[in-house]
Amino acid sequence: MRLYLSMLLLCFTSILWAVEPKKEYVDHPANSTVKFEALEITTSDNYKLKSWICFPTKDKDLKQVLVLAYGDAGNMSYYVRQALEVAKYGYTVVMFDYRGYGESQAFEMIETQLYYDEFVTDLKAVVEYSQHRFQQPVGVWALSMGTIAGTLLYSDIKYDFMIAEGFVSSPQDIISKLKQYLDKDYTLPSSASQYELALSKLTLPVLYFAGDRDGLTSPNDSYRAKFLNTKSEVVLYKGAHLQGFQALSDKTHGERYIKAIDNFLVNKDLPITITK
Prior knowledge:
Layout: H1 2-14, E1 20-21, E2 36-42, E3 48-54, E4 65-69, E5 73-74, H2 80-88, E6 92-96, H3 117-134, E7 138-143, H4 145-154, E8 161-165, H5 171-182, H6 195-200, E9 206-211, H7 219-227, E10 233-237, H8 244-247, H9 255-266
Parallel strand pairs: 1-5, 4-6, 4-7, 7-8, 8-9, 9-10
Antiparallel strand pairs: 2-3, 3-6
Helix pairs in contact: 3-4
Protein name: Peptidase
InterPro entries: AB_hydrolase_fold, Hydrolase_4
């Protein structure tokens, strides 16, 4: 038991779980042969968000779009390698930085707040842009904190599916765990009180990736959400928080991870959701 608690504490220590934006990019789609486009997307409250869109080749294009909503730390450049691999398999991947992250417009934040309601506004702008531009099924590829934004967003506007890793079934539980294991107080925005209701309304197809050694967002979080949604499935991998892409690699990086997405979506009759 003591060894388990020590490993759990190490997991929490290495994952700070508070807003930790980075301005400098550590990678760029230009460092590959994948076709991409750089642009700015404007939110409803007039914030400018930096975005990169990675395109599949025409012969592999699956006519499906993934909007990447990453977690609380770094910026979109930390996920370039994953996005490129997904694009090579036929998906259009729309990456973006939340306000205050990367080269998106500056936004003042407190590091001990778990997330900001404004991140949902940012995700909404990118999803709506993607729906209007591509007129193809659009899903949110949500990681950790990004699963909160994706869940809250679906109560506001509809999109077609979600790929969720490190799913948060209760922001309040995350706060309690951080207090218990790090003895540190974190705060939540006003939307947290509506999260339980938003989770009950998450009726779109959702594929959950859950790590068997994830002490923060455990497999139980994903299975709880699956219980509420008959259109969902869970892929359990051997690893910790957000290690699914690495754990499910084979001959190529993330091969089994991407194939799990393929298998999940292949039998789904996905509509094209367009917002006004």
